[in-house]
Amino acid sequence: MPNGDPTASEIANPGNVSDRERVAFLLLLFAADDLPELAAMVGSEAGRRFQASDFCLIWTLGTVDANGLQRFSAPARTDGLCDEAFVIAALRGENGSLRGSERAAGIGSIFTLPSPRPNLSAALYLAFPAEQQLTPLGLLDFVQAVGWRCRELLDRAYLKRSVDRLEKAEQLQHALYAIADLASADLEMPEMLRSLHQIVGELMYAENFYISLLDEPRQGLRFIYFADSVDQSSIGSEQVFPFTELQNSLTLAFIRYGKVWHGPSEQLRQLLDVTRDEEYGPEALDWLGVPLASGEQVLGALVVQSYLPDVGYTDEDAALLGYVAQHILTALQRKQAQEDLERRVDERTHALTLEITERKRGEQLQTALYKIAELASTSETLDAFYRAAHQIVGELLDAKNFFVALIEPNDTLSFPYAVDERDPLARFGNRKIGTGITEYVIRTGKPLRADRRDLDALNATGETKSFGTLSVCWLGVPLKGESGLLGVMAVQSYTESVMYTERDQAVLTFVSHHIALALERKRAQDSIKLAYADLEARVQARTHELNRANSELRAEMQERERIEQQLKFEALHDTLTGLPNRTLLLDRLADALERFQLDPTHRFAVLFLDLDRFKVINDSVGHLIGDELLKEVGARVRACLREDDLIARLGGDEFALLLADIGDQEEPLIVARRVIAALNESIRVEGKELFTSTSIGIAYSDARYHRAEELLRDADVAMYRAKTKGRQRFEIFDEGLHREALALLDLEGDLRRAMTREEFEPYFQAIYELDTGLIVGYEALMRWHHPERGLLLPGDFLKVAEENGSAELIDWQIFHQVAKALPRVCQAEHQYVTINVSARHFRDPDLCQQLLDLLDTYQVPARRLRIEVTEGALLENPELIRRTLDALRAGGVLTVLDDFGTGYSSLSYLHQFPMHSLKIDRSFVADLKPGHHGGNSAVVRAIMALAKSLGVEVIAEGIETEAQKQALLDLGCLRGQGFLLAEPRPIAAWV
Prior knowledge:
The protein is flat, with a radius of gyration of 55 Å. The protein is an alpha+beta fold. Helix content is 48%, strand content 20%. The strands form six sheets. Strands 25, 26, 27, 28, 29, 30, 31, 32 and 33 form a nine-stranded mixed β-sheet that branches.
C-alpha cells in the first residue's frame, strides 16, 4: 500500500458502506484520544464490518530492531504474535500475511500504517476465517482511514512522551541543583539530611527513607538519617551498630553485595540469605536500595521503602535513585569535609587563644619582673618596697591577704608587711620561731599550697599550729636570695571562690626569687645609706681596693670569655693540628649543599685524603713524631687551598677538603695534584727525614645528594679506589664506584648468610706421581655455591671476607667438611689431603690443639692431613708459627710450603721451619719445555737440588701441558698437580 497521505475521497469512503455509516466511522476515529482507545474502536468495527476473527494494533515509539524494542500493542498479546518476524517486517514497512497452516486463527494479514516521524512506526494486524478465500471488499480503504488517524495519535503520543521526559529531566536537574546547594549551605548536618529527604520525596515516594554509612575503623554501621512511618525506632546519627550484631540486617547484606536491590523485603531476604528478625522493623511491600559508592569502594546505602500495596517502585525509579545517590554522597562528603575543616579551625582557634593567653601571661609576668627589678632603686623605704611588691603580686594572682615573714637573728620571726581582711595585724607581731604554718615552710624550704583539709591534717599531726582565723586556701613560698633563705612570702583566701592552683604556686615561687633578690639589693642600699658617712671617710682607701677588684673582675670576665671561645674552638677543631674537625666540616658541607640545591651554579667539591703508609711511619718512629708529621701535613695542604676553602682532620691520618664555589670540574683536580706534589717532598721532623704520600678521592656536588654525610662517604669510596690503584693518586667518584660499593655491601651480606646456610664446599684437586699416574694426595680448595651467581672461586670473595672478619670462620667450615670427607676421598692408605691455612689462623696460639681436636672428632689419622702455608704467612710472627708447626709435626700433621720461590726468604724458611714438602709455584712451571736448560729450568733444577739436600719433598703446581710434565720429569720432579692431570672437583666426583 502507498505510504502517502490518503485523499479526501478515500477518507470519506472507508469501505462499501452508506454515507451515514461513513460519517459515524469518521466520528469514531476522531473520538479516539489515544492508540489503545483507537485500537478498541477499530477492532470492534473490523469484526462487525469484515467479520475479522482476530485483530491487533501494533506501534513503536522508537527504532525497531530484531528484539522489537519499545513496541506496544492493543489489545495486549500473550500468544506471541508481537514477537513474530513478519510483525517486525511490517513495522519496517513490509506488508505480509500468515496463512492458516501457520496460525490457527486463519489467514492473518499485516498492514504497515503511515508514520509521522522516522523513528515512529505502526502496523495493523487482521485475521479472517480460513474459509474466507478473498480479501473483504473495502478493507484497504478501511486500513487507510485508520492509518491516517493512527499517524496523528502516534505523533501525539511521541510528543507527550517527550514532554514527560523533559519534565522529569527538569525535575531531576532542579533536585541535583538543590543537593549541590545543600553541600555549601550554612546548615547543620541533621537539617541538611532532612532537606535531602525532602528532595528525594519530590522525585518519588520516599516517606520511608534512610541513609546508612559504613564505619570501617569501628567495624560498624551508622544510620546518619532515618525516617519511617511504621518503624518508630529511635536511632542516633552517631550511634554505631557493630557488624557482629547485624548478621540479620538486610541493609548490611545489601551494602556488602554492592549492587542495586529492588523488590519486597521478604523476597530480598531470601535472595541475600538473611534471616527475618523482628528487631529490624516490619517487612516492606516494596524495598529499593542503591549503594553509595566512590569508585569501587561501597561507603554506604540509600534506601526507600513502601508499606502500601498500591505504591511501588519501578526500574526507572531505581535508576533515578542511583543517579541521585551519587550526588547525595558527594554532598555528604563535602559537608563532612566542611565540618572537619570547621572543627580543625575551631581547634586551631582554641589553641591560638590559649597561646595568646599564655603569651599575655608571660608578658604580664615579664612586666612584673621588670617592676620588681626597679623596686630596689625606686623605693625610698622598705615599707614602700613591700607595698609595691604586694601590688605587683596582686596583678598576677589574688593577693588581698598577703604577708612577708623574715627570719631575724636570735630565732625570731618578723612580719615587716602584712595585709589581712580577717585579722588586721592581730597575728603579725614578732615572735619566736615555733610551729606555725609559716615556720613549716621555713623548715622544709619548699612551697606549700594547702586547703582547709590539708591545714587540719597538719594541725592534727602536730606539724603545725595555726594562728588566727583558718584560711580556706593558703599558699606560701620561701624567699631565697643569694645569701640563703630570707623568710616566707604568702597569700591566703577565706572564700572557696578563690582556690590557688599549681600555676599560682609556680608564679609566686618564680616571683619570690626576684623579690628576694630585690629585697637583698634594697637592704644593701639601705645599709649603704646608713653607713654613708663612714664610707665617705674611707672612700679614698676603698677606691683603690675597688679599682683593683674591678680590674680583677674584668680580668676574670676576659678569662671567662677566652675560655668560652677556647671551648667553642676545641669543640669544632682538632686538638692536635688545630684544623676544623668532622663536626665543623659537616656543618659547612651542609651549608654548601643547601646553597647548591637553591642555586645549582654554586658548585662545590669534597676531597677525601688518606696518607699512604702512615701506620708504618707511626710504628717505626713513634706516635710523637707521627703527630708532628700530621701537623706538617695539615700546614702543607692548607697552603695549597684558597682562603675560602676548608681543610678538616677527620681522625688518624684522614683529612677532608671542601672547595666551595668552584668554576669548573677541573679546579678540584688541580688542587688534588697540588696536594699530592706538596706531600711528595720530604718532611723533616726532629732531625728525621720522612717521606709520605697521599691518596685522594673526589666527589662533586650533585642533585642526588640530600645529606652532607653522603658526599663524604662517596669521596671516601673514591679514595679507597685510588689506594687500590697504586696510591699517590686521586680518583673521582662516579656511579660505577657507587655500584661497586653497593655490590660490596651485598657481597658482605651474602657471605654472612652463606655461612649460616653452609654454602661453602671443598673441591679436591689430585696430586699425582708424574711417572706412574698414581694419586698420592689431594689439595682441598674452597668453593662457594652462590644461589644466584653460581660457583664462585676464592678470588671472587676472599678479600671481602678477610676485610669483614669472616674468612677464618669460612676456613673452619671447610676444615670440618674436609675432615668429615677425608676417609671417603683418601681410600688408599698412603693418600692424604692438604688444607690451606692462612696467616690469620697462626695468630691463635691454640691452632695446633684445635686442628688435632678436629681430627679426633672425625676419627681421622693425623698422617692423612697436611697443612699448606705461604711464605708471606710466615713473616708475621715467625717464632709463634715455628712453635705451632713443631707441635703439629709432633702430633703427626705435616707442613707444605706453598708457592715456593715467590716470597722473600725461601731458603731461610726451609732451614728454620719444619717443612715436609714444598710446592714449586706455577710461575716457574709455565715456561718449562723438554731439553731447555736455562731460564725457569735452571731455577727448578736448583730448587730440586736444594730440596734433595734438605730431604724435602717437591710438588710442582700448575701443570697444564704435556711438555711441562715431561720437562719436570726430566728435571727429577716426580709429583705434581694441574689441569692437565685433574681439575678441582667436588667429593662426589672422586668417590
